[in-house]
Amino acid sequence: MTLAPASPSPLAHRLSVAPMMDWTDRHCRVFHRHMTRRAMLYTEMVTAPAVLHGDAARLLGFDAVEHPVALQLGGSDPAELAAAVRVAAPYGYDEINLNCGCPSDRVQSGCFGAVLMERPALVADCVAAMQAESRVPVTVKCRIGVDDQTPADILPRFLETVAAAGVRHFIIHARKAWLKGLSPKENREIPPLDYPLVLAMKQRFPELTLCLNGGVTSLSQAQGLLDQGLDGVMVGRAAYHDPASVLMGADSLWGEGFAPDAHQVVQAMLPYIQAHLAQGGRLHQITRHMLGLFTGKPGARGWRRVLSEGANRPGAGTDLLLHALAQVQDSASSAA
User: Fold this and answer.
1) Best exposed site among 42, 54, 236, 293 by fewest CB in 10 Å?
2) Residues 94-109: tens digit of each pLDDT
């Protein structure tokens, strides 16, 4: 299966895959791209200081097949963020996104992420500086509020302030972030979702592109939210743990028929994996993202077992992947 990168369009965000630390690296994104040509893919959050002082090629490099793909940056210093955008520009991302939603301790201590919900004027300064260095749209991913803030009061003010600096596209995680008392994992699950508030923001700011994140687990749920007037839906953990059910067939949201099956996706990944191994990479660096491909299907347990036990061994190659696939095929034959 030959996959041509899709050109970004104003509708690219009808469905997107969330930036997820330790998960949505370049290998994960290539894997996801073989299931959908249209969904916007996001990098893991990369901090501006890391871009400026670390290995930029390792942090920012990606395969052309990943387009459309967005870089998510973390930071709160306008000059630092602008410099990071300048470094990233030659890599050719389709969008630069500022993280105003992550609640982790290390993010709070660096004064970026969800804590920036308390500082909309600073966010406006940051995005203005970023836009001055960017040839592609600068967007913001945020929460509906943090701690004791009243979302219905602060979210419109936040959107208004940041939009005045030129941002036209926001991805809103429809939960508060509790910076005191909840872990990052709990912040993804415990604060209640408030979809009506995000829908109300779309009615209040029809000129903005507003996408909803949080709690979306299926294509039908995404379609329902689009039907209510939202511009896009971002899917997180469901796209990682059960990618087939969320991403295969996702291009139907654009009225397109691209819908490979899981076996085709495995075959499509083989040349990429072989190239990675030839460059000194390890099999598990890619296959760890593929463990959920057959979730809910006969043979899923054998698929996961073979890859989990063998992919980290020295010399593991594509023959192991094909052996894992045979477990699925054998189970499917037995179930028939």
Assistant:
1) 54
2) 999 999 998 865 555 5
